[in-house]
Write a structure and sequence with these properties.
single chain; 414 residues; alpha/beta; 8-stranded mixed beta sheet; two-stranded antiparallel ribbon; 12 strands; binds zinc ion
Amino acid sequence: MHVGGLVIAICGLVISLSAPVFGQRAADTSLGAQDARADDPIKVLVGRLELERYKAAIKGLTQFGDRQQGTDRNRAAVDWIETQLRSSGCTNTQRIKYVYDQPGQPFQQAASPAPASAVASGEIRSGLGGSRLRGIARPPDANNNPDAQSDPKLRALNAQPPAPGPREEVYCTKVGTTHPNEMYIVGAHLDGRGFGEAADDDGSGTALVMELARIFSGPDVQTERSVRFALWNNEETGLNGSRAYVEQRAPLQGREDPPGSGRYPEPKWLAMIQHDMMLWDHGMPRPDGTVSPEQRPEADINIEFQSTAKFADQAMKLAFLFRDANEKYATDYPAAVGHHMTNTDSSAFTDLVPAISLRENERGMQIGAGWNPHYHQPTDRFSAYSDKDFRLGLNAVQTSLAAIAHLSGVNLKK
Ligand SMILES: [Zn+2]
């Protein structure tokens, strides 16, 4: 009872404060309060998303195997993503270049690891990001053994080990009509690990960002503020690609270049929204360490902010705005908000701007307790997911599309 009252109070606060905090039109404070009207431009844009297109974008990424950083398959994936962005209308692509000179993840020479065993404990254990682990957990260990891939074709595709050296990542930008000097950053990481296809981690988030770039680049779509679509590299080695972006681009924010041109190569950052693993929910592992192979009807999208971040309050309001967008525009699955965001590229932005992440499960409490048996495993393949899983991901695409459209001030040219 008292918990429910608290939630309602928090939601009311969020709705009343979201507009001024994120620079929105002051009158538009009702994102979550009413159903969308048929002529609502956000509803029109969400209607342009299709399950099959989202699946096709994930499938396209899996042709580059696990896209591990520092390999030819990773570089080929960056090139392919840039081609896709340009052909979908987001033509002003740019690259961030940096050097990652650490050796790659060590390859284990051992044979396939033993199956993870379940741990059931009455104790509450602390997890990543300030989270608490309860109940049954599986160790979420990564596979570092290339020979653990049972498919010989995929094993060959993933055979090249990473080498230290120069790295690249790509982004493109929707330029705002009235505030081209301010932008929202929408991100996901293109690199993966585990010697599978990195279909969920993070083909599913990368495909989400590519779909948003396509929809926002439609010839009739205008936004008041700019939106940048960024596909980070080197997330799996410690957020090195997003940190390189922050290091290189943060000092350039809001500068008109050349002066008087009306062009802003690095608009002022308003918020950063990361997407990392969108397909799996399936619930807590069973006592024997297995996980339900079927999507559960109670599945949800997990929107997280970090309560210890410098911009925690604004990030919390942003997270609830995304939940409001989910309630109003997503077709199948709800969203929940948590305050332990961790271990993804939004962490590189938390001291500079409100930052949130969207995921299939909470990173600390659920992914960290082994809820996803494909996490960093050779089995993270397109074929491992059902349409119900892909639909959970599509609901995250709908949620982010609607929230970003609202925040950026979208309208459709007649
Ligand atoms: Zn990831």
